[in-house]
Amino acid sequence: MALLEVNDIHTYYGNIHALKGVSFEVDSGEIIALIGSNGAGKTTTLRTISGLMAPRDGRVLYDGEDISTARADTLVAKGISMVPEGRGVFAKLTVEENLDMGAYTRRDSGIKEDLKGAYELFPRLGERKKQVAGTLSGGEQQMLAIARALMAKPRLLLLDEPSMGLAPVLVDGVFDTVQRIANEGVTILLVEQNAHMALQIADRGYVLQSGEVAISDTAANLQQNETVQRTYLGID
Amino acid sequence: MFKWRTDDFSWVDFTIDVLRVIIVLGVVIGAWNTLSSGRISLAQWVNLFAAGLSQGSIYALIALGYTLVYGILLMINFAHGEVFMAGAFSTVFLAEALNRTGFLNAQPLLAILLMIAFAGLVSMSVAILLERIAYRPLRGSPRLVPLITAIGASFFLQYTFRGLYGSGFKAYPGVNALQGAIEIGGISIPVVQVFVFCAAIFLMLCLYWLVERTRVGKAMRAVSENKEVARLMGIDIDWVIMFTFGVGGFLAGSAGVINGLFRPQGVNFYMGFIPGIKAFTAAVLGGIGNIPGAMLGGLFLGVIEAIGPNLVLAGLGIPGANQLKDVIAFTMLVLVLIFRPQGILGERLSETKA
Ligand SMILES: Nc1ncnc2c1ncn2[C@@H]1O[C@H](COP(=O)(O)OP(=O)(O)OP(=O)(O)O)[C@@H](O)[C@H]1O
Ligand SMILES: [Mg+2]
Predict the structure, then answer these.
(1) What is the dihedral of CA B234, A146, A121, A109, to 10 degrees?
(2) CATH number at A4-233
(3) Mean pLDDT estimate for chain B
């Protein structure tokens, strides 16, 4: 059984029909890439899964349970974490307070240990734990957003364009980190405009176009696909 | 449209500049006249200052309620004065009972703590009910809508209390332990003023600890910064908003008791109106949404109110200066809104936030 099953969802912004019947599956342990151009509906898809929006039609199944209308804050405890587009760090909270908020729903005693783990994964954050997040560089904020999402101990991590706006030297680091998180057993749904990098680390991928899934295949096949090469990889 | 601005000259700016000069001149001349006349001794100044601090700490406690709610919802809860009234009014009855049994004077500290807890809980409940019934259903509607609702809720609360207990005044019983004065270097300060100030500061330190150090306090700050991301952290933002109203309410209720001990007379259904507006002024003075700002704004307003009329107005030869206290507060509100709308500590509000 798939960990996440998105079944023919239709999501609207008022009258704007943003998702027109999107379906896909994510199996436990996979890295799935969701690619597509501006306005294709990638963010809307993640928002619908994470509970920030509800689909008007169709269903989202997580671990066999229908979560289509579940509120975002109840899904965190079930194991779904999201790194939103534009990172969304709390600029006025310190780095450590941001990480505390990541662990908000947890009551176990392992939080301290995981905080240490986060600082080991991202030593830069450890050096700046008392600093307010608004003063971090873009790359550091992205690390913080990812570390914060991990503090919830997710089974499924939703990442919305983690490489966006980062200097090219930092982009490799981000994808490296995503790969490492996946190696720890976290299932990943990765939205990217940087299709090239996303498909390198992904197992499978889906191409969204105007609110619909246009192509779905293994990452290796997508890299060879002519349409994908032309439209998303910049290869003629 | 009438054009205010020509290329390099603006009548608005010019008028504001003239106003600035007039105000500064007025303050300087008034203060100079008063000080050089020596009508008021140093000891009297200190007494005025101390009384101002006490009154100001009560404003500060109420102002925190405005600022907490504004910080999280960008909304001004204009019924907050009535939240204060509800706690202050209800607790008169408890205070009378405690006085009749003699407990109030046998165990003053315990009795006052009990009264503060009771008033706090009453005001907290009123604030939470307000949020649930009057404001929550309107979240996301235009900003004017909850404002009008707040005014309606104010009237509702005032006339509920009037209906229940009549329109007459009630008074808090005197507490013997708070009578008398403390002598420091030839200056005597009433015990009750020291008590009021210390109690208020203690409550503010508790609030500081709550907001800065606890899990729910961090959640409050997170919700205030970005509600959507807060939800992605698993924070139930409706609960946090309710909690914030509750905290503001608790502080207002305790301010009601502290106010009752400081100025025993004057408890009635209408008592929340003026302190409410003054505390709002204090919150704006400190920069609305800013917690230390509300504290400082309250203290500052209290002191200005106590000293200003004697120092400036009397020096300018304005008769009955002490009766003009309220005018000072509201003039300050207008001046702050003209010259520094972001308040003393506030950051300039961006369009999106305002
Ligand atoms: N708040 C909104 N109100 C109205 N329409 C919206 C809103 N957000 C997105 N849309 C519309 O929904 C569609 C899908 O948008 P979405 O943000 O999901 O795209 P995306 O694939 O994430 O694009 P990008 O790569 O630019 O982030 C677009 O046509 C967009 O214009
Ligand atoms: Mg997007």
Answers:
(1) 0
(2) 3.40.50.300
(3) 86
What tokens does B18 get? 């003239």
Residue B347, classified by CB atoms within 10 Å of its CB into exposed (0-12), middle (13-18) or buried (19+), is: exposed
Asked whether the predicted pLDDT for residue B351 surpasses 50, the reply is: no
| pLDDT reading at A8 higher than 70 | yes
Other CB atoms within 10 Å distance of the CB of residue B262: 23
Strands, DSSP E only, in A55-162?
57-62, 65-66, 80-83, 156-160
Q: Which of A11-15, A137-141, B264-268, B324-328 has the lowest mean pLDDT?
A: B324-328
Tell whether ipTM is more than 0.95.
no
Q: Which two tokens stand for residue B186?
A: 């030839």
pTM of the model: 0.89
Distance B237 CA to ligand 2 centre (A): 24
pLDDT in tens, B198-230: 999 999 999 999 999 999 999 999 999 999 999
How many CB pairs lie under 8 A apart between chains A and B? 63
Q: 10 Å Cβ neighbour count for B19?
A: 13
> Could you tell me if A80 and A46 are in contact, meaning their C-beta atoms sit under 8 angstroms apart?
no
Residue nearest to atom 14 of ligand 1 (CA): A41
CA B25 from centre of chain: 29
Helix axes B42-73, B291-308, angle to 10 degrees: 150
Residues 6 or more apart from A235 whose CB is under 8 A from it? Answer: A229
Which atom of ligand 1 lies closest to the CA of A193?
25
Q: Please, what sign has the CA dihedral across residues B136, B138, B141, B145?
A: negative
For residue range B308-333, what is the model confidence (pLDDT) as tens digits?
777 777 777 777 666 777 787 788 77
Ligand 2 geometric centre to CA of A132 (Å)? 26
Q: Report all structural domains of chain B as residue ranges with CATH numbers, in order of start.
A: 52-339 (1.10.3470)
